[in-house]
């Protein structure tokens, strides 16, 4: 079926979070939150794409969809593991308690409940939505444990011969919390702990706790943390963490950092790649659908994934680096080719014409890529997308990394609706969704590359 390169995009209509990201039986599987009927959020399904190399993705249609009374209003986010050769997908199952007569795809405020469920598949390609689902954690009605509605996004892993699950949740809609469950077999789960944290906003979404060498990292998306009244109030964060598997006690070390300084990125999920690296993919939120002419089947589409990024930690800082599979696909090119590529964007298939610019940016200097401005000021990398984000109000347009010490090497990936800037090999990443870029690049760059 349809192929995407580098950035997996909605196959048409709507996608949000990456789900069930796993390398299983020779394929990378990436599922995602998907509303197949319109380019807006609605009753959630899991769309499915596969790749051999994290670069070329093939859309396979819908893998998981509502069939049971407990998931009748949505198959929400979750994760995958391999268990005895089978692929197990864990997800949050949503059931509305009230109906909005004018829109059956959204629940009136507070009118829903959430349980946790799983579906197994013997090959990762076939999913029996009627037969192979089961509810594994019923709706939680004990406030000492978790919230009956806002407890979701199971991330499951195996450690010391047991299965662990972390869920995003809230305490009384006031305090975000991570909730842990434990299991001997991956099906029968017991409550382990709830861990409220100031840093988790009013509700935590999509937590992902993993080991990196002898440390642990928690990625998560706390809601309501940005208080400037602009979209988006929720943002993806990363923390170094300590976790005691016996008690379920979680401690965050330090303040945490933005996963991406551009703040469009949300709901990151990681897995181990073929070679054991920790690789992250996340949803790039788009305030409006992209043009149908950029989609192979003529459908408007809203939502795409960022480049696969390798997560590393060094001197207490979390790095998000360009994945080596991505490195393999860029060939040197002449500066003049970029404008030609940009001119062809409207006609080319999706994902074609991607280019990459590498340059050192001294204080006071900058680049302008099709109307997107990047410059260095007070040591930080700053960007302004106002020229390529026109007619969209209520969203941030200017962004900045923290101050960068010493030299500043930029590695910039550009395609029609997304610019990703890796600063000093992933010390910071700043990515922006953009629209209607003009075909020009201004400013000095050290080298140019095109996707090949
Ligand atoms: C995050 C999120 C998840 C939820 C899913 C629903 O973007 O709100 O918490 O499972 O999206 O689509």
Sum this structure up briefly.
The protein has about 450 residues and is mainly β. It has two helices and 34 strands. Bound molecules: beta-D-fructofuranose.
Structure in words:
- With about 450 residues, the chain is mainly beta.
- It has two helices and 34 strands.
- About 5% of the residues lie in helices and about 50% in strands.
- A hairpin with a 2-residue loop joins strand 22 and strand 23 (about 315-320).
- The longest helix is centred in the C-terminal third of the chain and has 8 residues, at about 335-345.
- The chain is globular and about 60 Å long.
- The mean pLDDT is about 95.
- It binds beta-D-fructofuranose.
- The site of beta-D-fructofuranose has 13 residues, from strand 2, strand 6, strand 10, strand 14 and strand 18.
Tell me roughly what share of residues is in helical segments. under 10%
What small molecules are bound in this structure?
A: beta-D-fructofuranose
Please give the count of helices: 2
Structural class: mainly beta
| Shape category | globular
- Counted beta strands: 34
The strand line-up of the biggest sheet is: 1-5-4-3-2-20
State the low-pLDDT regions, or none. Answer: none
Major sheet: 6 strands, mixed
End-to-end Cα distance: 20 Å
Query: What is the percentage of strand-forming residues?
Result: over 45%
């Amino acid at each position: 079926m349809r192929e995407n390169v580098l950035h997996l995009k909605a196959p048409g209509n709507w996608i949000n979070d990456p789900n069930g990201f796993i390398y299983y039986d020779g394929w990378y599987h990436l599922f995602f939150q998907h509303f197949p009927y319109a380019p807006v959020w609605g009753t959630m399904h899991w769309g499915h794409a596969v790749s051999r190399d994290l670069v070329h993705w093939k859309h396979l249609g819908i893998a998981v969809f509502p069939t049971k009374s407990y998931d009748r209003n949505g198959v929400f986010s979750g994760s995958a593991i391999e268990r005895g050769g089978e692929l197990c997908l864990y997800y949050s199952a949503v059931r509305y308690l009230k109906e909005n007569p004018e829109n059956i795809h959204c629940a009136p405020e507070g009118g829903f409940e959430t349980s946790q469920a799983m579906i197994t598949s013997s090959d990762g390609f076939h999913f029996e939505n009627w037969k192979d689902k089961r509810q594994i954690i019923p709706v939680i009605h004990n406030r000492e444990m978790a919230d009956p509605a806002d407890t979701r996004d199971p991330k499951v892993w195996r450690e010391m011969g047991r299965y662990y699950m972390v869920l995003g949740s809230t305490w009384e809609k006031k305090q975000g919390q991570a909730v842990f469950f434990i299991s001997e077999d991956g099906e029968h789960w017991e409550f382990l702990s709830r861990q409220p944290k100031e840093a988790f906003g009013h509700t935590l979404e999509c937590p992902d706790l993993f080991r990196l060498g002898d440390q642990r990292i928690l990625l998560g998306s706390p809601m309501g943390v940005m208080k400037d009244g602009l979209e988006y109030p929720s943002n993806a964060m990363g923390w170094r963490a300590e976790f005691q598997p016996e008690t379920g006690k979680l401690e965050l070390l330090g303040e945490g950092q933005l996963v991406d300084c551009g703040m469009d990125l949300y709901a990151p999920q990681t897995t181990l790649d073929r070679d054991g690296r920790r690789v992250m993919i996340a949803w790039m939120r788009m305030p409006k659908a992209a043009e149908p002419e950029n989609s192979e089947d003529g459908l408007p589409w809203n939502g795409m994934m960022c480049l696969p990024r390798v997560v590393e930690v060094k001197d207490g800082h979390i790095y998000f680096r360009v994945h080596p599979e991505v490195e393999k696909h860029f060939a040197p090119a002449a500066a003049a080719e970029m404008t030609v590529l940009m001119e062809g964007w409207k006609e080319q298939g999706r994902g074609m014409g991607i280019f990459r610019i590498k340059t050192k940016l001294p204080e006071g200097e900058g680049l302008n890529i099709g109307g997107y401005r990047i410059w260095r000021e007070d040591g930080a990398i700053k960007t302004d997308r106002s020229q390529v984000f026109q007619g969209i109000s209520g969203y941030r347009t200017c962004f900045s990394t923290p101050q960068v010490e010493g030299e500043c090497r930029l590695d910039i990936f550009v395609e029609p609706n997304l610019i990703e800037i890796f600063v000093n090999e992933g010390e910071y990443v700043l990515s922006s969704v953009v629209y209607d870029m003009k075909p020009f690049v201004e400013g000095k760059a050290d080298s140019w590359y095109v996707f090949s």
